[in-house]
Amino acid sequence: MLNTSERQRYERQLIIPEISASGQTKIRNASIFIAGIGGLGSISAYYMTAMGVGRIRLVDRDRVELSNLNRQIMHRTSDIGKWKTRSAEEKLILDLDPSLMNRLLRIDSWNMSFKTTHLTRNEDCNVCSNARSCHVSGN
């Protein structure tokens, strides 16, 4: 069940018959895995957070560089030198919706290479983005 704050935040989504309150609850209970917080991963993470996905696992091995800023909308000039995962956490939790820190959203950030991450061990994720292989559950 959605609380009053969630109903206000997701009001526009709730009026869509295909989503409604039950669909929004499913979104809140979903988990996603995003490998790489670059051009595509930045957009995906931002929109998934904004739409209310309950748990996001972010993995990226890089730090923010000046050459990233023209296409990786998550990062700012002040982020240059930060791990991309840290930069993303700041935007998604602190800027987009601070209440998410105390709610269901949990961002697991790993600063490691995708090659060393066992992508097939993400059975708890409903959707994977940017990964060569991923598990998609049928929730």
Description:
Strand 2, helix 5 and strand 3 form a beta-alpha-beta unit. The two termini are 17 Å apart. This protein has a four-stranded parallel β-sheet with strand order 3-2-1-4, with helices on one face. It is of the alpha/beta class and 139 residues long. It has a single domain, classed as Rossmann fold (3-Layer(aba) Sandwich), CATH 3.40.50. Helix 4 runs parallel beside helix 5. It contains five helices and four strands, in the order H-H-H-E-H-E-H-E-E.
Beta-strand level of the residues, as a percent range?
5-15%
* CATH topology grouping: Rossmann fold
Low-confidence segments, given as residue ranges, are 113-122, 131-139
What value does the average pLDDT take?
Answer: 79
Keyword list:
Rossmann fold; 13% strand; 4 strands
Topology overview:
Elements: H1 4-9, H2 11-14, H3 20-28, E1 31-35, H4 39-51, E2 55-59, H5 84-96, E3 106-110, E4 127-129
How would you sum up this structure in a few lines?
This protein is of the alpha/beta class and 139 residues long. It is 32% helix and 13% strand.
